Amino acid sequence: MTDFTQQLNAIVGESYVLTSKEDLDTYGQDWSRLYSPNPLIVVKPGNTEEVSEIVKLCLQHQVAIVPSGGRTGLSGGAVATNQELVLSLDRLNQITDFNPVDRTVRCGAGVITEQLQNFAEEQGLYYPVDFASAGSSQIGGNIATNAGGIKVLKYGLTRDWVAGLTLVTPSGEVVSMNNGLVKNATGYDLRHLMIGSEGTLGIITEAEMRLTTPPKEPTVMLLAVESLTDISNLLNHFQAQIDLMAFEFFSHAALEKVLAHRELKAPFGDPANYYVLIEFECGDESAMDGAFAAFESAAENGWLVDGVVSQSNQQAEELWQYREGISESISHYPPYKNDIAVKPSQVGEFLEAVDQFVSANYPDFENIWFGHIGDGNLHLNILKPADLPLEDFKAQCAKANPEIFKILQSFNGSISAEHGVGLLKRDYLSFSRSPAEIEMMRAIKNVVDPNNLMNPGKLFQ
């Protein structure tokens, strides 16, 4: 261990090799908070070459590596539980090589999502992948989990904005993938294999990211809704009437948590069972007229009971707080989270089926629903009762998981929409992937990382 540490010191400098218990605990876990961190050491390289040297050293000593970004994931993908080296990419935080013609920019893996958003804005452009953790999540982690967020409906996933990647392979070789090309029909696009691979096939150190034109006057409408069927009707109705950027939903129980945590005023005088938040572009009066017409016809059909529309960017941000503050407001319970997906048309039926199961079998558990309903991505959060020990709570949730996933499987859904598989869901992969698919993924892992040193134990055993 002493020799190994000294070699790491020589690569990155002694101040970037961390061994204190506080640092090990901090960098050894993510937001899931359901596993006890147990890393060997934390190392913070400053460039791709240092990452390459660290990987070669770990291969020599057969030390496994867990890549660490903003650690905002909820599936245990960035958790080190078995004396792994935690490779923190915090220092790879430079934005360079902006090309206004190609509308691309090179980002280190440690660039904060919001940092890229702000850079794009300074250039008069827009980076559209956005979520509540944008102020702390990192681009490398976004890519490793193919993060989606709140504007997938219009702009797609992280995958759609990656023009090129720089990867350090499990052998320490540095590989550039796609090099920012729009068209490149030369065999397998390994860039897309790495996107969503959760660090199990190598370490992403840099990415060329695409930017786009900013939306015109984003406007937010918050709707109070009584039934799940109404939510599906509203999605179909508004999609046909206006060009949606986001279509989010949350339950009244979720809203209550945000109101208490952030000391906000309730958006409506009378509570509703559910709420829908819509964001759309409003570049001229005709767009707003169309949105109001859609609202009025939805009210006439009885699909909503109340609503409010933003009159400024500040009001739009205030309305977003009701949705974006949910995860933070329930984090202290701690919640048992499920980030799942079905087709948007199946959302109402699926929600009812899961609610019935939880209510019938776990009446003491509080169930908090919210999600990106426009793309079928739902977040199920089961809150730990105050008097129930954490280990007992985890055991009960683990018992419930297969039953919930059986319901999900009957809808041909996914056990993970945007947070990856990690440790939390690896034993349930078969509910979303066929045996043939899993075998193919194992074969790829075995060929690319034969020593199983890249984030081992994630995705599958």
Task: Explain what you see.
- There is one protein chain.
- By secondary structure, this protein is of the alpha+beta class.
- The protein has four domains: 87 residues, Uridine Diphospho-n-acetylenolpyruvylglucosamine Reductase, domain 2; 116 residues, Uridine Diphospho-n-acetylenolpyruvylglucosamine Reductase, domain 3 (2-Layer Sandwich), CATH 3.30.465; 110 residues, 2-Layer Sandwich (Alpha-Beta Plaits), CATH 3.30.70; 108 residues, Alpha-Beta Plaits, CATH 3.30.70.
- 36% of the residues lie in helices and 20% in strands.
- The protein contains 15 helices and 16 strands.
- The strands form three sheets. The protein has a seven-stranded antiparallel sheet with strand order 13-10-12-11-15-16-14, with helices on both faces.
- Helix 8 packs antiparallel against helix 13.
- It is globular, with a radius of gyration of 23 Å.
- The two termini are 26 Å apart.
- One of its GO terms (molecular function) is oxidoreductase activity.
- InterPro entries: FAD-bd_oxidored_4_C, FAD-bd_PCMH, FAD-bd_PCMH-like_sf, FAD-bd_PCMH_sub1, FAD-bd_PCMH_sub2, FAD-linked_Oxase-like_C, FAD-oxidored/transferase_4, Oxid_FAD_bind_N.
- This is FAD-binding oxidoreductase.
- Its cofactor is FAD.
- One of its GO terms (biological process) is respiratory electron transport chain.
